[in-house]
Records
---
Amino acid sequence: MNDPLQNQSLTSRNVRIYLDHNATTPPAPVLAARWSELLFVTGNPSSIHNESRMPKAWLRETRQKFANYLNCSPLEIIFNSGASEGNSSILKSAWQLRNQNRNEIIVSQVEHPSVIKTAEHLQAQGAIVHWVPVDRAGLIDLDFIKNKLSEKTLLVSVMFANNETGSIFPIKEIAALAHQAGALMHADCVQLLGKYNLEQHPEKLKIFDLDYATFSAHKFYALAGTGVVFIKKNSPWVPLVHGGGQERGRRGGTENVLGIASLGIVLDELKAAKVHVDEMLRLRNLLESSILARIDGCTITAAEGARLANTSSLVMTNVDGETLLMSLDLKGFSVSTGAACSSGNPEPSPVLLAMGLSRIEAQSSLRISLGWQTTEEQIILFVNTLVEVVAKLREINLTGKDLTHAVS
Ligand SMILES: Cc1ncc(COP(=O)(O)O)c(C=O)c1O
């Protein structure tokens, strides 16, 4: 295979290059420009004095903008602390509303831990959970879903796109199947915004016909600690957090006004998402074809199915993923071996194992996720460094030295 970056000889410079945008995105530059304005957002939005006006206005404005972006009503938007809270709330809420007839939940095996762990928690309380397989091509087993759906199904929860491999799942089709069986449909849409061009569907979120969807501000260039739940009108809901009646009684606790305001500002930027998505796709393709041309024994996980434009999950034989990550870190590159929340955990990624990769393959994996600020120069520097580091680690491996020593 030809290396498209063959004649590029840039070498590493003394700068950090961030390629871990599925873990979190850096705050958008526009936030720095408006930082002093944001710092003046004082006052509790639930108060009725003068100071509450500005935070109340930020909440109202962001809610309306988010609703416009998704093409839903502002009443269908709940602010909370992030997608882990959103995912837990939805599953637990559905479970509280179970009845004798409906007590089964269908969840994919590659969901984020906030879904998996909540489903396991409900399983311990008596819920029957059907875990949907996903193969190594990134394809979800639709027949399994069809077979398990029945008049006993309460909720189906399948993510829009996987954070580790970038695999995009057919949630519209799954939602139609769920609804035929009278079940509710939730999709974790955390990796959608900024990485997928929702504008291409004039119906926006309605295209998927979901009852619930979850989002997280720090995954698309706003501040961490703010999440959004889309809850379709008249869908059942039991609050996870009770409190002073915020969010129309659906989520207690004073709202994270600064985080919500940052979200409102960044939402304006999403109008340009298509341009960024196209450019990330171009750079990701360049990255992958160059790596495949220059590094033997390298495969791309889930490359056969639909994928997010920015994500690449690689398996490199004879290389330990953690050691590779540390070596790249020492050279100024931030990437990931799996989900960020499990870094430092020597166990291989449960998502990759669930997809049928062996433990060795999963332990030799690397996730690279591009962002809006990623440049071609960064990709060239990264590939050059990766080629060099992989060669050194394989050499150490061949000479029988300890595999777990990072090279700098
Ligand atoms: C797919 C997915 N869902 C949920 C979450 C959790 O989001 P938060 O950090 O807002 O709790 C993440 C974050 O890693 C994610 O990637």
Note: The mean pLDDT is 92.
---
Amino acid sequence: MIDPMDVVLVGATGAVGQEMLRVLEQRAFPVRHLRVVASPRSAGGTVTFRGEALVLQPPSTEVFEGAAVALFSAGSSIAREWGPVGAAAGCLVVDNSSAFRMDADVPLVVPEVNGQRIPARGGIVANPNCSTIQMLMALKPLHDLAGLDHVVVSTYQAISGKGARAVDEFERQQRAVQAGEAPPVAVLPGVLAGNLLADWSHEPSGFSEEELKIVAESRKILELAGLRISPTCVRVPVRNAHSQSVWARFRRPITRAEALGCLRAAPGVVVDDRIGPGQHPQPRQVSGTDDVAVGRVRQDLDDPQALSLWIVGDNLRKGAALNAVQIAERAFGVTPSTRA
Ligand SMILES: NC(=O)c1ccc[n+]([C@@H]2O[C@H](COP(=O)([O-])OP(=O)(O)OC[C@H]3O[C@@H](n4cnc5c(N)ncnc54)[C@H](OP(=O)(O)O)[C@@H]3O)[C@@H](O)[C@H]2O)c1
């Protein structure tokens, strides 16, 4: 039995922060006091945890004092400014932003994939990008079986991945489109209602930031510096849960039956290999669940060493909040509640 601890939640009003509140409660994380932090704009407002209204405060040195865990989901600049403050106060800092992911001395962790990298109790740990997490949940067990050689991934990323304000704007866009009015465009780079967008900034290579994150983070987590990955990321008009079409080539032939057996044994993965129209993992079904769903597993028609897969995961849960809480659980030896 672990003694309850003080926990700081930075970004408590955001899309990920709100999910963190639910995950901490559902998994009965041993929280003594939860200190909730958001921007100065939200200070004095409240969020609800275990039925209690908690008052929001802006970040400060004092808020981390005596706390054991600090869960950050407030973007990179806040993480860079306040993450080291939390770590210096002795907290295990688990950050959802990209601020520290590629730092050589910061572990980048998906517990089921490289949980051995989680430090005992203190320091900074980075949560990977949501797309990277769900892709590796399916590919790591297959890599252990047959050795990954090349991955081609196209993402179908939900609007909640861009934060609470983007979800709000998307819903207003949908209402405007239905009413025949001009949709508002402020948070998103264009109209997503009834449309698709590549909404990340692009590098000179033509790849988007999001695409390059998948490449760099997968190589770091798998410790495969030379892994070939060809990504294309797309935002789709789906409220929550990211989908991915993945083609993966291995170092030896791998059959559909072998792959299904391997995935069925993988922790945190659920195989949904029904075949037929509409019979596959779908964001509407996966949203709100913890496992990453894998379906449509096919051996390539021309290459016996390659598989095609369809992977769906809740970007706010396994892609962010759940993964972060699992890291804290492992660091402190907490067994999650089975009521989760
Ligand atoms: N959404 C996803 O699926 C997902 C998945 C993986 C990782 N992430 C990462 O997680 C982070 C948060 O994402 P999100 O989608 O939850 O964003 P979001 O909905 O926009 O929430 C941002 C949070 O940060 C807080 N914040 C902003 N400025 C602050 C300041 N100066 N001091 C303290 N808090 C401040 C906001 O508080 P106010 O309400 O007061 O503005 C809000 O609580 C980002 O780094 C994102 O890349 C997101």
Note: The radius of gyration is 20 Å.
